[in-house]
Amino acid sequence: MKALGKILGRRGRPSAKPTPANRRRERPSGDGTSDAGMRDGEAKGRGRKVLAFGAKVMLAFAAAAACLGVGMAAYGHATSSTYFAVTSLEVRGARLLEKGAVLEAAGIKEGVNIFAVKASEVERRLAGEPWIAEARVKRRLPRSVTIEVVERRAVATAIFDVPYLVDDVGRVFKRWAPGDPAPAPFVTGFAREELADDEPGVTTEMRDAISLATRYREAGLERIAPLGEVHREVDGGFSLTVGEDATYIRFGHGPYRVKLARLVTLLARMRADGERPAVVFLDNRVRPDRVTVKMKRDEKPIETAQGSADGVDAKKTVSKI
After folding, report:
1. Overall fold of domain 154-316
2. 134 in helix, strand or coil?
3. Whole-model pTM?
4. How much is the pLDDT for 279?
């Protein structure tokens, strides 16, 4: 019974509950540190960091200002120092234009500070000179400037109200002036108003006229009858005036290769026979294989047909020139 009572007595006594391992323990309050004190310390730490960062920023600004000031002082000295005054001006590529004319168009001269020479501005001024197609400006420290130019090549003289020069791409680039070259052929049949209203269109047709003149020379016809004039007809086709006798040759529209080959054969045969053509028509649209020729003097006009690649067959007509 006593044993049973002991057992029951142990079961009846309340047992102490174990403390959870993750239970938050109370901070002892007797160590002299409080939550408010910790917050004050953290605030002071953040304040010191902000002050340190601000000091670094101010130092960086001060250093940048000092560098800027030094740079401005150095630039001011460089742009005013005689050490950087240009003493060498070289012009390359100029054949028609003299060096002085190029420098005058460029707007620079010896003695100017090299930092005052802006390459892009000088190139833009040079582009305003009609004879200059391209220009490149290079500065070489401390005192040298080089100007490289590509001049236009005048290959024809266009007759509007007054003569103008035409380059090898068909551009009418300059009014002719005494001292300028006057290259043949002379190109006629264009109005001055066309150039003002449709410069790209005029350039294209000028290029076609120059192409025909070039093919005429390449065919060897220049030796037989020198080319004098290329004329644009009302319908847009072209005619040539060639030789000392001013023979009129109407080509019409291209292509011109076959027409030029027929003209070579025709002129060679007529020259061998002592005949002089006054007018040659190569633009027979109905019979493109036929060539009509009107003779000078009292000779009868003849109509010729391309019978084969190696000759021209002639057929007389009754009309006279």
Report:
1. Rossmann fold (3.40.50)
2. strand
3. 0.68
4. 95
